[in-house]
Every structure is written in C-alpha cells, then in structure tokens.
Amino acid sequence: MTQSFIHIESPNYLRLQDLPTPPDWPGIFGNDNRLALEIGCGVGDFMLKTALDQPDTNFVAIDFYNKGCDKTCRRIDRHGVTNVRVVRDEARAFVTERIPKGSLSAIYINCPDPWPKKRHRKRRLVNQEFIEFLLDYMVPGADFFFATDFDDYGIDVANALPGIAALENQFGSDLYRHEFPGYHLSKYMRKFMAEGKQIYFMHYKVK
Question: Which residues are noted in the entry as substrate-binding (predicted)?
Fold first, then answer.
C-alpha cells in the first residue's frame, strides 16, 4: 500500500533501519523497566494516557501507517512523555525481529482493521494462531488486551481465546465485556461509541 511519506523528527521515533535485531531496549530507554507493546497505535491518544498512568513501564508503539506514527510522536512529545518509543512496521515482522522472546509484560491491540468483507476476513491480524505466536514473547503474568468495535471480529476472538491453554481470562466467565473501567478509550473507540456501537473488550493473563 502506497503511503505519503512524512518525515518524522522526534526523539521518541525510532527508524526501523537504525534498529539492530533485536534492539537493546534497556539501552534505548535508559533503564531496566518492564517492556510493553501496543500493536496499532493509531494517533496515539490511548498510548499517551496509558504511558502517563504507568511511568515505570517502557512502551513500544508500532503502526503500519506513517501518518499515525507522526501523530503519535507529536502527541507524546507535546506532553513530555519519555517512556514511549514509536516505530513504523508490520506487527508480525516487528515482533519476530525486534522483540526478544520472553520480554513483554503486556500487549495492547485496539480496534485493528476489521476487514469487514467476508472474503477479506482471512486478512485479519488477530486470531488464535497470531495470539499463540505472541505468547513466546511474553513473560509469565503478562497481560493481553484486545478491543474491537466490530461485532463478529469481537465474537471470533472471544471464542478463540479460551482455547489457548496458556492464557487465563481476567473477566471470569465473561468472554468479553462492553465496559472496562480504567482502560483508556482511543479516539476510534469514542467515535464508534458515539455512533451507537459497542466495544468488545478482552483481558487475559499469561499463566
């Protein structure tokens, strides 16, 4: 997909070509704080609020879209946030090449592209196979968060998660919830909710 290129000048933006495989994340952040990943940071409003809430966590926020990375950087720069780094890359490649196995304390995936047409749904990022792939990169006790506004995407992921033995549902017997107190809403979530849509929230932990 062709994108108009925006040159991003930010101390919190990491150019993919400058990152070793894998990067020295403690060296990049200047500390040994736990590491978390947001896949699909959009315009950065969720990441900003979450990073401000958790100053002792280092966040890597990735997005495939250059424009979203630029907006995320501008947002966190304006607020003087220092515990976020932004990278433009595709999710699976980035995790495979840039995240050490057994290093993530949390993964956040909010409102990924739903590929709504039935013939395109195989392109959806999040399914049982992808979540099982992510498990190798998470520490015991790590949190996995997923949210979508798209009904059948939410139900598909909600039905897949209980089949992953290494994960424990933090919502008890509820496969998903439409309200998640304390979990920040992104710009897209607020937009969808204003249109009368419900958000499907899921929260699991690695056993």
Answer: 117, 149
